[in-house]
Write a sequence for this structure.
């Protein structure tokens, strides 16, 4: 699974993709920027179109640049994204991956009628771009099955190499009308099954525990800004563990690391910790933010690498139970592991003598 690191033009550090940066992460293979940032600052938009988005951001050839259409930014706003301007940007800035110009996220606070409107408008945009290279977008919502049916009913959409799935983050925010974790998992399983063989991108996965779910589901790529959001709140992540608060920033208080966890952090081999140690992780200001963000992304990339190694050599079922802390996602992970075990061919049944 490709981890796509979300970043923002407003604060383009740490430059984890930049070989010249002390925060460079060689394992990183993709980043994502939002078109909303380019709308907010037209000079950025112009320069990215003049130079190409890769040169403009200083991204090396081995790192892919994903463009997000900024749909999350447009929730609750009435502005429309001018489609021709978005298309002009895509054709000149040349990102490696881009979705339809606008999709309408059915946040959990909307009524069923409003969610239907989001579905209709997003599906209309998918159909309008069915002949283009834009990736269609569908959402986890009450209308997910209607989405998959509508996409598969159109021969051009059905023939697209990839599809993007959004709407997970608003449901994970635990609003009263949000879908349960079980419903979200059922939705993900439905999409993976209906679009078997397609490149499936998931918008917005959180930390290390949700990365396990995404990898178990066979999702091809997923973007996350959690490495930055957590860093901004003074939080670092540990392999297989939840969030730990290491820097005292403002009113937010989280769980502090245990003595054993401090020791693990002190021994961390990420570029930020190797250079600045625990002091660097706990620092304030932009320096502390960059250290924590680099550490968090390095941890996520390593976690995914480890998950994939264990899945490939069939040691995952024994490994995850001892590796993962008691995350709220553990029951979902258990269910996915059992589903995988049941669907595997029974190689042991072959009689070596026969
Ligand atoms: Zn570290």
């Amino acid at each position: 699974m490709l981890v796509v690191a979300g970043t923002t033009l407003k604060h383009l550090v740490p430059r984890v993709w930049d070989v010249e940066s002390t925060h460079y992460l060689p394992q990183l293979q993709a980043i994502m920027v939002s078109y909303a940032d380019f709308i907010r600052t037209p000079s950025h938009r112009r320069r990215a179109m003049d130079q190409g988005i890769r040169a403009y951001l200083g991204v090396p050839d081995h790192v892919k640049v994903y463009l997000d259409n900024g749909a999350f930014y447009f929730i609750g706003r009435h502005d429309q994204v001018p489609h021709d301007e978005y298309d002009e940007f895509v054709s000149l800035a040349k990102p490696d991956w881009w979705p339809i110009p606008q999709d309408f996220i059915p946040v959990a606070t909307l009524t069923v009628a409003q969610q239907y409107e989001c579905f209709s408008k997003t599906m209309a945009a998918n159909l309008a771009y069915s002949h283009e290279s834009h990736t269609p977008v569908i959402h986890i919502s009450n209308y997910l099955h209607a989405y998959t049916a509508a996409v598969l009913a159109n021969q051009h959409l059905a023939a697209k190499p990839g599809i993007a799935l959004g709407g997970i983050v608003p449901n994970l925010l635990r609003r009263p009308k949000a879908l349960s974790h079980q419903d979200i998992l059922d939705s993900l399983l439905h999409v993976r099954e209906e679009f078997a063989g397609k490149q499936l991108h998931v918008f917005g996965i959180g930390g290390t525990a949700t990365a396990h779910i995404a990898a178990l589901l066979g999702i091809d790529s997923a973007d996350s800004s959690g490495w930055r959001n957590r860093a901004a709140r003074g939080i670092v992540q540990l392999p297989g563990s939840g969030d730990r608060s290491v820097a005292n920033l403002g009113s937010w208080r989280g769980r502090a690391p245990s003595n054993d966890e401090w020791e693990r952090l002190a021994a961390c081999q990420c570029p930020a910790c190797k250079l600045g140690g625990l002091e660097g992780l706990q620092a304030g200001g932009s320096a502390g933010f960059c250290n924590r963000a680099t550490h968090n992304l390095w941890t996520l990339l390593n976690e995914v690498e480890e998950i994939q190694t264990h899945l490939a050599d069939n040691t995952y079922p024994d490994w995850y139970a001892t590796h993962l802390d008691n995350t709220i996602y553990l029951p979902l992970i258990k269910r996915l592991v059992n589903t995988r075990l049941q669907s595997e061919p029974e190689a042991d049944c072959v009689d070596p003598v026969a």
In short: Residues 346-354 have pLDDT under 50 and may be disordered. Residues 268, 270, 272-273, 295 surround zinc ion (CB under 6 Å). The longest helix spans residues 285-312. Strands lie at 2-6, 30-34, 64-68, 137-139, 162-166, 199-202, 221-224, 235-237, 243-245.
